[in-house]
Design brief:
Elements: E1 51-53, E2 56-58, H1 62-72, H2 77-87, H3 89-97, H4 101-136, H5 140-150
Antiparallel strand pairs: 1-2
Helix pairs in contact: 1-2, 4-5
Length: 158
């Protein structure tokens, strides 16, 4: 028994979708790309040092696990971090809880130095404006203009 073919003559395409896994039903995109499901494995000559215990690789930190996956499996940083998070949740937890004290301290020191420098420059400019206004008997606005013209280095102008 043959099936009768039905030919559609009058129709309109309102949406065309191509996905490798369904997402939100009402979400729409004009152009989309998919990451290949299989990635080539690239082995480099000097992988990071890790100890093998019972056919599992152990790491001292979450960063070592991510570097290992990036180097051995040839994953991108984001993929390696996602995979390492799934494989080593205890390392990820310690990574999230540990403050980056060296970076935070350096940033705080840099911020404090910049603030101190800015405050000192502000006081110096204010003293110059005050003395110029009194000496030349002009308003503070005019004195500021004169000080700015005479000392452009104080205003970051060379």
């Amino acid at each position: 028994m043959t099936l009768k073919r039905r030919v559609m003559h009058d129709f309109e395409i309102s949406e065309l979708s191509a996905v490798n896994s369904p997402a939100q039903v009402h979400a729409k995109a004009l152009i989309a790309k998919a990451i290949p499901t299989t990635r080539p494995i690239i082995v480099k000559v000097n992988p990071p040092v890790a100890t093998k215990k019972d056919d599992a690789v152990s790491f001292k930190s979450f960063a070592e696990a991510v570097d290992h996956l990036k180097t051995i499996a040839g994953m991108s940083g984001t993929e390696a971090m996602t995979k390492a998070r799934a494989l080593h949740p205890e390392l990820f937890k310690s990574y999230q809880e540990a403050p980056n004290t060296s970076l935070a301290k350096k940033q705080a020191d840099d911020d404090a130095a910049a603030i101190a420098k800015g405050v000192a420059r502000s006081h110096q400019i204010d003293a110059l404006v005050r003395t110029t206004a009194l000496a030349k008997r002009v308003s503070r606005v005019d004195a500021l203009r004169l000080v700015r013209k005479a000392n452009p280095e104080l205003f970051g102008e060379d």
